[in-house]
Structures are given as structure tokens and as C-alpha cells.
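[step 3/7] fold_predict: job queued, chain A
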Amino acid sequence: MKRQPVILFYVQHLLGIGHVFRATRVARELVRGGAVVHMVWGGTRLPKINIDGLEMTWLEPVRVDGADFQNLVKLDGSPVDDALKNARRDSILALFHETRPDMVITEAYPFGRRQMRFELEPLMHAARAASWHPVTVASIRDIMTENRAEKRVRESIAMARDFFDLILVHGDPDLIRIEETLQGADEILHKVRYGGLVTPEPPDLGIAPSIAADVVVSAGGGAVGHALTAAAPQAMQFSRSFPSNWLLIVGPERPQQDTDALAAAAPPGMRVERFVPDLARVLASASVSVSRAGYNTTGDLMRAGTRCVLAPFAGGRETEQLRRAEIFAAKGLATLLRDEEMTPQTLAAAIDRAATLPPMRAGFDLEGASHAADILLECLENPGLLR
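[step 4/7] structure written:
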């Protein structure tokens, strides 16, 4: 009987949670393809996320304390000390040597998660030194943070060149190519493969959504969606097209008391929820969506074909969401509204404009979970493809 391939998949969310959904969708497809996937989870636990079939290793969670991504903290807000760093590093290395994976996947690293070098560099050195020669993969989104310091760029490219066999881009090159936003990419393009956009399954329109609304305003995880959720309750009165029947989704990363406060202040005709499990189905039944421009959010919108306003997060050094929103706006598939332009009146006007756009369907590859899994399993079956 043929041995099942074993994969170690490292995932760490520090602020947003979108990439966690992408990683777990790919991981579940790997399991469906016959692999055993050990997922190393370094952030807070998200009870609503689907980890069926995955072997989970829960590290003591860490996060960042602001949008500048500078300071690692524990859940209680105290700084991450050397003892915790060493314990996490040792747990990952112990799992690596115990499971002897055929493949090691790091989500975002080495082009992100620089804060986690204390545990990722030892892992990658162990993978390169292992006698069984596991395939090493960097799993990255299609749009990277731009304008990085030259020193950081050189560090990332050197790590990708020396320690990774494959750079798996979860994107469609017809939308954007990785070298457009990844500085220094020309040195490693021979390692790049595109897996398509990782999106949820198309919503079953024969099943009624849990909530029906004309306008759905969602703030993603919610950690950085305060401007949007603050403007939405007052915006409804200014919309000519949709004066009622709005849904505001605050986000699971916001405290419950924030949701309660927004619900108490919401005008008649607006419903406020912290989380909606069937968001794709809710979006498919809506007339207009207002959201951030994260990877998963735009994937949901393309699946649902919903007309939309994109209000990208652009705090700190982040440029990814703004670039994505600009791409879709330039294609006539979205209305762009920046945080600095956000008022109840401008939000209402953007929603009214979005109602005149075509549905957000653009013919891109939306089967990125299964296509990425196919590429990864093919590389395990035929390592010569990586040379």
C-alpha cells in the first residue's frame, strides 16, 4: 500500500484572519487528495473555521498590538518573551522530527511574518538539513506589501532562493502577476507557480440565506474596520437606492460589547451581527456589498457576483488591499472608497453608484484551493518538476 504523503503546514495570523481561511481551504483539499496535513497554528483559535480532517498543533497564541506589526504580544497584551519564543520553536521542531514530513509549507513567509523568524528560520534550516529532503513551499497571496525596505527585500529573496523549492502564488496571472508587487521577484520567478484564487464553494442559491438584506456592510475580521462600522449606521438615511434593509457585520475579532453598542445605536431597518457563517450566500442575495478589499472578501464577492463598494485597509505600511481595490475599480467591477474619504454621506453615495455596476464576475480562476493542492501533490509525486 502506498504511503500517504505527510505535510507540515505553518500558519500564523497576527492581525487579520483572511489568510487563515485560504490556508485551511488549501489544507483540506490536500487531505481530500490523500495527504496527512499537520497544521501548526500560531494565532488565536477561531471556532468558526473549518479544520475538518486536519491534524492540529496549537501553539501558545501571539498577535501584534497594532497595524504597524512591530510588537508581538500574548493574548493578555503582555510582550512575548524569550521563554515563549523558545517553547514555540521547540514545539515546531519536535513536530517536524516526529512526523518527518514530505513537504513543509509556510504561509506568507519569507515575504511576510518576519516577526516569526525566531521559529521559522530554525524550521527551514531543519528542513534543508533533513536526510529525507522534504519539499519546501512558500504559500503566498497574489498581491504583496509594496515599498519594503531594501534590506528586508534582500533578506526575503535570499531566504526564498536558498531554502524554498516552490513559491506557490494563490492568484490568477490574468488579474495581477506577482512581480508587479513583489520586489526582487525576478531572481526567483523560476520557482513560481500560480494556483488560482482560493475562494469558497459557490453558494447554493436554492438555500435561503440566514439573513436577507439589500446592503451588506462587512468589516472582515473587524480588527481594523472601525471607520466603516462607524459610518454605516448613519449612511443608510442618505442612500437614495436603499433607504432600509441593511446588514452590518462587525467582525469576530471585535469585542462583543462593540457589536452590542453598534446594535443599540443602529437605526430601524439595520441589523447588526458580529459574524455570519453563510456570508457567501448572504452576499449572493444582496444588491450591494460594502467591505474591505482583502483577498478572501473579494473572492467571496466574485463567487457571489455581488455589486460592491471596496473600502480597503491601508494602515501602517499595508498597500495590498488598496492595490486590489484599484484593480477592480479600474476594471469597472467595484466602487473604491478610501478610509480618509469615509463619511456617512460618501458611503451612501458610493453604494448608490455601485448599484449601477455590472455583477462582480470577471472570468478569473476561482478554483485555487483544488488547483493549489493539485500542484503540491504533483510536486511530491514528481520532484523533478521543481528543478
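[step 5/7] annotate
The chain has a mean pLDDT of 91.
The first strand starts at residue 6 and ends at 11.
exit 0
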